[in-house]
Amino acid sequence: MADLTTRFLGLTLRNPLIVGSSGLTDSVEKVKEIEQAGAGAVVLKSLFEEEIIAEMEETLHRMTSRQFIYPETFDYMDEDVEEDSVRKYLRLVQEAKAAVHIPVIASINCVTSQKWTYFAKELQEAGADALELNLFILPTDFSRSAEENEKLYFEIAKEVLSQVTIPVLLKISYYASNLGQMIQKLSETGIKGITLFNRFYSPDFNLENYQVISTNVLSKPGDLSISLRWIAVMAHRVNCDLAASTGVHDGEALIKQLLAGANAVQVVSALYKHGYPHITQMLDDVTKWMEQEGYDKIDDFRGKMSQAKSSNPAAYERVQFLKNFRHFVYQL
Ligand SMILES: Cc1cc2nc3c(=O)[nH]c(=O)nc-3n(C[C@H](O)[C@H](O)[C@H](O)COP(=O)(O)O)c2cc1C
To answer: From 208's CA, which of 6, 33, 117, 218 has a CA 20 to 30 Å away?
Structure first.
């Protein structure tokens, strides 16, 4: 029987399949189902500072529309709302840890620097095995240069690392002025891993009522290629682990990310579509493939198709449809 055991962030996982942060990981019951289905680890739904702020504003609106309140009330109310949300999340971490044996990775997304460190410390106290920083700064702030924007990633990583001893994983997007170098430099900050890449709420237009709506909430199998390219390019060039995320919908895609050099692979959309039993199916497919190819353990083939090991490294950097596609015709 093939051995799928994996080392990731200094932790031992029974296999490299991690259920990624999402609504699929926001309760203890769901985390238990994930463990039962066979996943190697779980990243809990992010604790969003932005959501806490929105909740505070809503409470404030409700209070002010009903009665006059003394200004001091605002301070107490803000603290109460924040404490309540944070307390709920800390309870989720504690209860999930008590309920399952697989590693439980907490996740945060903040807008102010104090909160990154405050939440990080609290989550470590609550028993999280590791912490994923869901880090994304959309480069639409015209007052900041690319350098200033990207510096924030390093500052947040540094501040969080100064406060916790559990492994820290950075989940980033591919919006960077020099992505390869940025990933490499981030890997040298002391963090234990980088997740490539997060996938975001994307806008679309409704032509009937001129409203902005969300689209493509779930990824498709074809979305695999961006993270596959970057895992393959960055493997053997970073000083930390790499987790692949986006477009992993079946066992084959999981195998491809491991061949590219991923240490672990996160899955979300495929489980929204097929349910938690799909985890078992994906892992069975990996096991079958390993046995068919004669691999006893994951390290026997991990990174075998990374750019550094490739006999054709240029294939990973090709971006233009050159001569091979000259005669490409649309087929019905
Ligand atoms: C409904 C939904 C909720 C999500 N919530 C979070 C979240 O709270 N934090 C986070 O870091 N990523 C979140 N994500 C992003 C996923 O963790 C993942 O990075 C992304 O969906 C790409 O992986 P996939 O192709 O397997 O879906 C969410 C994704 C979906 C579809």
So the answer is: 218
Q: Which CATH superfamily is domain 6-325 in?
A: Aldolase class I (3.20.20.70)
Q: Which residue has the higher pLDDT, 32 or 145?
A: 32
Residue of 18, 22, 267 best suited for mutating to test ligand 1, as the one with most atoms within 8 Å of CB: 22
- Measured in Å, residue 186 CA sits from the centre of ligand 1 at 22
DSSP per-residue string spanning 60-96: HHHHHHHS---HHHHHHHHHHHHHHHHHHHHHHHHHH
What are the C-alpha distances in Å from 278 to residues 38, 94, 248? 10, 27, 12
Residue 127: band (very low, low, confident or very high) from pLDDT cuts 50, 70, 90: very high
Ligand 1, residues 18, 19, 21, 223: which to mutate, most atoms within 8 A of Cβ?
Answer: 21
pTM for the whole structure = 0.90
Q: Which atom of ligand 1 is nearest to the CA of 217?
A: 31
The verdict on the CB of residue 195 being under 6 Å from ligand 1 is: no
CA of 331 from ligand 1 middle (Å) equals 33
List, for residues 153-200, the tens digit of each pLDDT value.
Answer: 999 999 999 999 999 999 999 999 999 999 999 999 999 999 999 988
What is the C-alpha separation between 15 and 7, in angstroms, rounded?
Answer: 9
Look-up: residue for tokens 């609290």? Answer: 122
* Per-residue pLDDT tens over the stretch 239-254: 999 999 999 999 999 9
